[in-house]
Amino acid sequence: MDKTRVLVVDHSEIIRQGIHSILKTQSFNYEVCFSSNTREINDKVRSGKVDILLVNPSAYFDSKGERVKLLRQEAINFGFKLIALVYAYFDEHLLSMFDEIIYINDDEEKIFNKLEKIVESDVQVQDEDVAISQRELDVIRLVALGKSNKEIAEELFISIHTVISHRKNITNKLGIKSVSGLTIYAVINKLIDTDDFNRTI
């Protein structure tokens, strides 16, 4: 089995070495490299040499969150999973654009559990026998466009509780839990196109 290739992006040497120390205990599963050079990072992710990009989201912070949205689009375009490495407060809405979050106080077991969940969470192909309602398709489309539950409720004129219920049903039917997974599903099934996505960033 091929190793999962993890690229760690953080300005702190202590953090980088700490992540390396933890992951090297599972060296048979993970191949870890580090970078803080923007051009090198772009070259690696665009060449398909990265399976997981583990980043400190503050390195991509701006007032409107546009850089995080662009990073999310890169993950969709080039097929890598996006994990936030958080050790200070960061906007929850922007964190929702990541596939997973590793916190500074997570222990080794929790970190590995999160990584394994990401590795195993490739988008599942929809079973032809599973019927997705039009309303559920509407919810998937809006989730893929980065809308919050509140925004989806307002746009579809339904309650937040109903939105949450639709999202649970979608997860049960498709087996897709992450926003990025639903986004890929939406693109594959032509619920959105790149123009739709670009208008949101």
Question: What's a concise summary of this model?
Answer:
The chain is α/β, with parallel strands linked by helices and 201 residues long.
Fill in the CATH topology of the largest domain. Rossmann fold
Distance between the termini: 37 Å
Q: Kindly report the average pLDDT value.
A: 82
Broad structural category = alpha/beta
- Low-confidence sequence ranges: 122-129
The description of the largest β-sheet is: 5 strands, parallel
Please compute the radius of gyration using only Cα atoms. 17 Å
Count of alpha and pi helical runs: 10
- The outline comes out as globular
CATH superfamily of the largest domain: Response regulator
Question: What letter string, H or E per element, gives the SSE order?
Answer: EHEHEHEHEHHHHHH
Q: How much strand content do the residues show? A: 5-15%
Sum up the structure in keywords.
alpha/beta; Rossmann fold; Arc Repressor Mutant, subunit A; 2 domains; 5 strands; 49% helix
Molecular structure report:
The protein has ten helices and five strands. With about 200 residues, the chain is an alpha/beta fold. Strands 2-1-3-4-5 form a five-stranded parallel sheet, sandwiched between helices. The longest helix is centred in the last third of the chain and has 15 residues, at about 160-175.
Topology at a glance:
Layout: E1 4-9, H1 13-23, E2 30-34, H2 38-46, E3 52-55, H3 66-78, E4 81-86, H4 92-95, E5 100-103, H5 108-119, H6 134-144, H7 149-156, H8 160-174, H9 179-188, H10 194-199
Parallel strand pairs: 1-2, 1-3, 3-4, 4-5
Helix pairs in contact: 6-8, 6-9, 7-8
